[in-house]
Amino acid sequence: MTRTFETVGVVGLGTMGAGIAEVFARAGMRVIGVEADEEALGRGRGHLSTSTSRAVAKGRMTAEQQAALLGRITFTTSREDLADADLVIEAIPEIMEYKRGLFSDLDRICKPSAVLATNTSSLSVTAIAATTSRPAQVVGMHFFNPAPVMKLVEVISTVVTEDGLAAEIADLARRLGKTPVTVGDRAGFVVNRLLLGYLNHACGLLESGLAGRDDIDAAVKLGLGLPMGPFTLLDLIGLDTSYEVCEVLFRESRDRRHAPAPVLREFVTAGLLGRKTGRGFYSYA
Ligand code: CAA
Fold first, then answer.
1. Which range marks the domain in which residue 131 is found?
2. Ligand 1: residue whose CA is nearest its atom 17
3. How far apart are CA 266 and CA 250, in angstroms?
4. Torsions phi, psi of 32, nearest 5?
5. In what order do the strands lie in the sheet with 138-142?
6. Ligand 1: which of 56, 61, 121, 149 to mutate, most ligand atoms within 8 Å of CB?
7. Residue 177, CA atoms < 13 Å, CB-side half-sphere
8. How far apart are CA 76 and CA 31, in angstroms?
9. Is residue 283 in a domain?
10. Are residues 207 and 172 both part of a single domain?
């Protein structure tokens, strides 16, 4: 059976969820965006409006296209509104308990043919799938920040994923203008497994006093030709997400190189989470 995926639910409209909703709506699909309460829903609407207005200002989209794109998105605080979705993507915080609760709700609410996907950066897709009565229809669909710009989607299948579903999700990613890679279910998948080791190591270098924040960022950016240095990128990803991914990698691998650097923990405890809170390694006034 080849699915059509015309109506897509996105649960969680933070930085990633709002970006994912934008990507689907831009490809002409109907999107149902769900947040926990009106305040969070308002913030999600704000992300979408800012991001699409920027595209208009840069001449990548007309005002009419922006209105049509936003018109394809319904905003709601009720998970029950996902009953008719063909696909639901979860983009809530990286806390397994929250994900399990959400997936058992989705399993109850969504139609039997619906595919349930998680945008988790590091948690076990298999464990999330196991909370549902349809583990064969649960996959990982992992986007990168900023989702409207970054071309990659990691498609994660588990030992129980239905044959052919990963290929259908990869086709869907292509329809969104992305390039999919197919990955097995191991903490961090490919990108975060490699990336967080490096970012955590950069925090260790900063703590050791080898070089300062600006010099490390400049060294990597100019010496390796990457678009951002490690501290700029940590602020973009969010220090809470980065910390959580390091924790999961450390728990799974027992490799001390993945033990989150103390400076990351300090920033997270202080609520300095990067761009999204206005301050992390840098300040964003
Ligand atoms: N939303 C929508 N569009 C955005 C955007 C956003 N948040 N941020 C930037 N853009 C767009 C800009 O509008 C611009 O578009 P045009 O070229 O059409 O004008 C384009 O992206 C380039 O942006 P800028 O000129 O403002 O700045 P830049 O050239 O420095 O690019 C960047 C910004 C794309 C973010 C670039 O710096 C970059 O690629 N950085 C690395 C990002 C990265 O590594 N992401 C992966 C993080 S890991 C992850 O996400 C996984 C995880 O699970 C933790």
1. 7-183
2. 58
3. 18
4. -110, 110
5. 73-76, 30-34, 7-11, 87-90, 115-118, 138-142, 152-156, 179-183
6. 149
7. 12
8. 11
9. no
10. no
51 labelled catalytic: no
Strand blocks (E) in 91-193: 115-118, 138-142, 152-156, 179-183
| CB-based contact 140:185 (threshold 8 Å) | yes
Q: Are residues 201 and 118 in the same domain?
A: no
Looking at the fold, whether 70 and 176 belong to one and the same domain comes out as yes
CATH number of 238's domain:
1.10.1040.10
Nearest-CA residue for ligand 1 atom 48 is 144
What pTM was computed for the model?
Answer: 0.94
* Share above pLDDT 70 across residues of the chain, in percent, rounded to a whole number: 100
The reply to whether ligand 1 has any atom less than 6 angstroms from the CB of 197 is no
Distance of CA 189 to the CA centre of its chain: 13
By residue count, the chain amounts to: 285
CA distance 167 to 196: 27
For the chain, where are the E strands, in sequence order? 7-11, 30-34, 73-76, 87-90, 115-118, 138-142, 152-156, 179-183
Question: Are residues 236 and 198 both part of a single domain?
Answer: yes
Let me know: does 139 contact 155? Beta carbons within 8 Å: yes
Residues 109 and 196 grouped into a single domain: no
From residue 31, alpha-carbon distances to 24, 25, 82, 145, 220 in Å are 7, 6, 10, 19, 38
Query: pLDDT tens digits for 38-69?
Result: 999 999 999 999 999 999 999 999 999 999 99
Residues 238 and 127 in one domain: no
| Residue at a domain's end among 183, 212, 243 | 183
ipTM for the complex shown: 0.93
